[in-house]
Amino acid sequence: MPAAALRSKPLPTQSTANHPVQLDLPYVPVAKRPLPPGRPREWYATHNRRLKAMRLATALLDLGVYLPDQARNEKIRSTAELIGIHPPSDTTCHMVRALMRYSR
Fold first, then answer.
1. DSSP string covering 23-76, please?
2. Which of 5, 48, 53, 69 is the most buried (most CB within 10 A)?
3. How far is CA 40 from each of CA 32, 43, 79, 95, rounded to the nearest angstrom?
4. How do residues 47-63 score in pLDDT, each as one tens digit?
């Protein structure tokens, strides 16, 4: 009998398409580095908004929200509460959807 016939069949893998994966909590935040000095205040606000949008987009993808149409403001804000950050503004919610749209 060939050796291949003696091996058992591998177990089927579970698809995450039907079952959203639960978010692994708590997340350990990335080590923060000081921002470069001497920039205009608006640069810092935009930079922090982008970081927050990226954190939220990543968390939504981990929760199984893959399309921007699935990410309504309420869903984004509830995800922010889940991962422990302040609720995002409408502008940040729009940025989260834009990140999800253009990453495809």
1. P-SSPPPPPP-PPPTT--HHHHHHHHHHHHHHHHHHHHHHTT--SGGG--HHHH
2. 53
3. 20, 5, 30, 21
4. 999 999 999 999 999 99
